[in-house]
Design a protein that fits this description.
Length: 463
């Protein structure tokens, strides 16, 4: 009897794990193994040979040998009667795809995006692309990982914009405090206007910040959901990955955050020509500047005077917010007021600085990327470099002597930008073009090396 039981046990045992069969499958050579044991063996050996006779399997899809399975379950005492069902069996029933063949799905239809029963459904999918579940899960998880990366990148972009907004808030507060101190002796109407702008700009930034925070929170929730989805086992993953992927892709398609233009306090409006406004009140004759520099456009290396009428290149880089108006690539600054018509003129003391540029720039000129000082890039100018003077088209212009003070003259309606030596009003050159948008006074200061240089000073002149 014991000998017979031994023979039965040997017949019902897997030659890979040496245990009684679980979901046995039979090869064409008639050797049988646990389905999971055979799959693991093939993954390790990188082939599909029989573990016993080494014969290559001719079967592409393996189905469970239900006769052998019932004998193995009966021999191992795994069959239950009536309503007696173990927790393990209950969980298993939740994962099957076919009520007739209660086994975990081994195949996945790519066309229909679902697991299929290899026994009764495979024939219905012969014209479809069908792959093993493990391969499908691997591919789908890779897709979801890509979606996760997109979400993480999107969140990082929002965090970068959030950082810039924080810097802008600090800059707004610093500018407000400075202006409040400077204007404390002005009438209450000026302070009221300043407070109103500070509050309005603060509300704008706060509104944008709230949106940014909401997007970061939403993206974080989606990232957590995707990460949780990636931890699921094959079948639960297949049943729920679509919703998670749809949500992830929907949020990944949200447009990138954009900084709001005009978010900083309009310093030039409150501080520019302040002395002239005081003169109107005090009836005293004071200096008036035809051009006020806009600190919100100044490059990090440029330092402006308190009255915003002169500029110098410093030795240290300032910590300033990267607002849309700021020139970040070129060490340049724009005037605060632009021109769309009429005649305008101003003079600039360039002194002995070895590298400089003065002229006009159009409002849409690129302020972040690399640009050249030419009309093609929206700059009309006179350039001094290496002891030579050129126009914006890299053509040499002739001067009688080294220029110390330049007059820039704009006739917008006639499309002319002219440059003169202010000392004797000798004409240097005139550029003719057709202007279609607002033009702003434009100044560039290059590196001076070891040379000691003076500030660029904007002076008053009449046409």
């Amino acid at each position: 009897m014991a000998e017979r039981l031994g023979l039965v046990k040997n017949y019902l045992s897997c030659h890979v794990c040496s245990k009684t069969f679980r979901d046995p499958v039979s090869l064409s050579c008639n050797h049988s193994f646990c389905s999971s044991c055979l799959q693991k063996f093939w993954e390790q050996t990188k082939n599909k040979n029989c573990p016993i006779c080494k014969r290559k399997s001719s079967k592409y899809f393996l189905t469970v040998n239900f006769t052998l399975k019932e004998l193995a379950d009966l021999f191992a005492g795994r069959q239950k009667s009536g309503s007696e069902t173990t927790e393990e069996e209950t969980e298993k029933k939740l994962t099957v795809v076919c009520s007739k063949h209660e086994e975990e799905p081994k195949l996945f239809c790519v066309d229909e995006q679902r697991a299929v029963c290899p026994v009764c459904e495979f024939s219905l999918h012969q014209s479809h692309k069908v792959v093993p579940v493990e391969e499908a899960v691997s591919d789908l998880k890779e897709q979801l990982k890509s979606d996760l990366k997109s979400l993480q990148d999107k969140r990082n972009k929002y965090k970068q914009v959030e950082k810039i907004y924080n810097e802008m808030i600090q800059q707004i507060r610093a500018e407000f405090n400075k202006l409040q101190q400077f204007l404390k002796e002005e009438e209450e109407s000026r302070l009221a206007a300043l407070r109103e702008e500070e509050e309005q700009k603060g509300r704008t930034i706060s509104r944008e910040m709230k949106m940014i925070e909401e997007q970061i929170s939403s993206l974080s929730d989606s990232i957590s959901a995707v990460e949780e989805e990636l931890q699921k086992d094959s079948v639960p993953f297949l049943s729920s990955y679509k919703d998670t992927q749809s949500r992830a892709r929907a949020q990944s398609s949200v447009s990138d955050p954009q900084l709001v233009s005009g978010a900083l306090i309009d310093v030039a409006k409150h501080l520019g020509n302040l002395s002239f406004r005081v003169w109107e009140k005090m009836k005293e004759k004071v200096h008036f500047s035809p051009v006020i520099l806009d600190p919100n456009t100044a490059n990090y290396w440029l330092y402006l005077s308190d009255d915003l009428t002169s500029v110098r290149r410093g030795d240290t880089k300032q910590q300033l917010p990267d607002n849309p108006e700021r020139n970040t690539y070129s060490t340049s600054v724009f005037g605060s007021d632009g021109f769309r018509s009429g005649k305008h003129s101003w003079e600039v003391e360039v002194g002995d600085h070895p590298v400089w540029l003065v002229g006009l720039g159009k409002e849409s000129a690129d302020r972040k990327g690399k640009r050249f000082a030419s009309p093609e890039y929206g700059i009309w100018c006179l350039v001094h470099r290496s002891g030579k003077y050129t126009n914006g088209e890299d053509q040499t212009v002739t001067v009688k002597k080294s220029l110390q003070r330049i007059r820039v003259q704009l006739d917008y309606d006639r499309g002319e930008v002219s440059f003169y030596d202010s000392e004797d009003l000798t004409h240097i050159y005139t550029h003719r073009d057709t202007f279609t948008e607002k033009l702003f006074p434009y100044f560039y200061i290059g590196e001076a090396g070891d040379a000691k240089t003076s500030d660029f000073k904007i002076c008053h002149t009449e046409i």
